[in-house]
Amino acid sequence: MITEVYAYEEAPHSYSASIFLVGPTPRGDEATSWRPEALKMIATVFNQVEIDSLAIAIFIPEVREGGVYRYLDQVEWEKKYLEMADALLVWVPRDMKTSLKGLTTNIEFGKYVDSGKLFYGRPEHADEIRYLDWLYSSTTTRTPATTLLQLTEEVLNDLQTHLAQCPQKIRQGGERWVPLTLWGNHFFQQWYQSQRRAGNQLVAAKVLWTFMIHKVDFLFSYALHVDVWIAAENRVKSNEFILSRPDISVVVAYWKHPTDWMESEVILIKEFRSPARTADGFVHELPGGSSFKEGDPLQLASHELYEETSLQFPATRFKYLGSKQIAATWSTHFADVYAIALEKAEMEAARELVQAGQTFGVAEDTEHTYVEICQLTEIGNLVDWSMEGMIYRALLSSE
Q1: Alpha carbon 130 to chain centroid, angstroms
Q2: Does 2-164 carry CATH code 3.40.630.30?
Q3: Of 65, 253, 290, 375, which one is least surrounded by beta carbons within 10 A?
Q4: Are strands 265-272 and 248-255 parallel, antiparallel or unpaired?
Q5: 237-296 residue pLDDT tens
Q6: How far is CA 315 from CA 4, 295, 303, 305, 393, in A?
């Protein structure tokens, strides 16, 4: 089902996906709107792709026939639904001789071009579109569509792909403010489903920024301002945002001293990380990495340790300690923690890596890691509070 929502009209309370038709709007009789044609194409393509029984809302920034154009209401309405829309279908049939100049379209294009939800096209004969072409191609992995039909197919196929990944196909109320690209994100759903289990509900949301890895079309991180109705307190909390990234896997590789617990040793890595507020500008932490890779968790832990230190041990030697949120007042991500108890000779072999000063890590991710070995008595001078807790948990688990 398709619902058309014209200027000043309210969106349906619930739907599966939404599209905003962005582009020049004729303000006189010398040009005709391209949007009626776009609506026909959307209806045609919608019936062809496999999104049956789903509800699509189309936001149309034109006054319904018989209505009166009101500038301030228009800009407020467009601002609201540009934010809410799951996809921005941007068609620019720019003609500098008519009112189809699309000057406002340029601003909207620039604001949302790196959002992951903008799809752009223009006819071959369109005026003054060279910069839009360049910015779109250099910011995204897509190229400009040259026909309205091609652009429509791109938009609906993308919505279909994201809907297929969503456990909940219909959003309602405040959930509609979460773009489909984010709604289907595994890490967003982990956060939101934990809120739902507590009886809480999204009242509103606004994407503050997203960080896309465009070469693999992967949403790595985002910040989302949220208004949440808290069931236990019967109130709305609206002054916070959530920061999210993939969960991580962390490895505590240690040698436990046979008589003096505090003389036990732990393998750390030293790596430059931009947020560091340390004396040397480096972060000193446990080996690990993002845990969105598929495979046996123990084998992945073994791989993470090898990747950042070159130390390789069978997966069977690793022990899973559990999963916890690291900074619950700031970020939604969890850490899965693994431990491996080393023999004295194995720790001595690791010490040779420290003395050699070799660097490890994934070069294409600009990752340079150095192996360090730290005695438990000094661990608090190097690692952060979360890492210190993981280390003590690992040593206590060996009792």
Answers
A1: 29
A2: no
A3: 65
A4: antiparallel
A5: 998 999 998 888 999 999 999 999 899 999 999 999 888 888 888 999 999 887 566 768
A6: 55, 12, 9, 11, 20
State whether CATH 3.40.50.1240 applies to domain 248-397.
no
Cα 147 from Cα 38, distance rounded (Å): 11
CA atoms within 13 A on the CB side of 224: 30
- Token digits of residue 267: 């393998």
The answer to whether 2-164 and 248-397 have equal CATH topology is: no
Nearest in space to 5 (alpha carbons), one of 67, 54, 53: 67
In 49-117, which residue ranges form alpha helices assigned H by DSSP? 71-84, 103-112
Q: Give residue 173's Cα distance to chain centre.
A: 22
Nearest Cα neighbor of 90 from 125, 26, 38 is 38
How far apart CA 84 and CA 20 sit, in angstroms, is: 9
Q: Which residues contact 210 (CB under 8 A, 6 or more apart)?
A: 114, 115, 116, 181, 182, 219, 221, 222
**Residue 393 CB coordination number (10 Å):** 15
CA-wise closest residue to 15 among 199, 150, 236, 170? 170
- Please list, in sequence order, all residues whose beta carbon lies within 8 angstroms of the beta carbon of residue 297, skipping any fewer than 6 positions away: 249, 291, 320, 336, 338
Domain ranges of the chain: 2-164, 185-244, 248-397
What's the chain's length in residues?
399
- Look up residue 283 and give its two tokens: 């972060």
Tokens 């919608």 belong to residue = 46
- Does the pLDDT of residue 69 top 90, yes or no? no
Q: Are 95 and 127 within 8 A, CB to CB?
A: yes
Q: Which two tokens stand for residue 171?
A: 């959003």
pLDDT of 138-149, one tens digit each? 888 889 999 999
Calpha distance 367→326 (Å, rounded): 22
Backbone angles phi, psi at 74, to 5 degrees: -65, -50
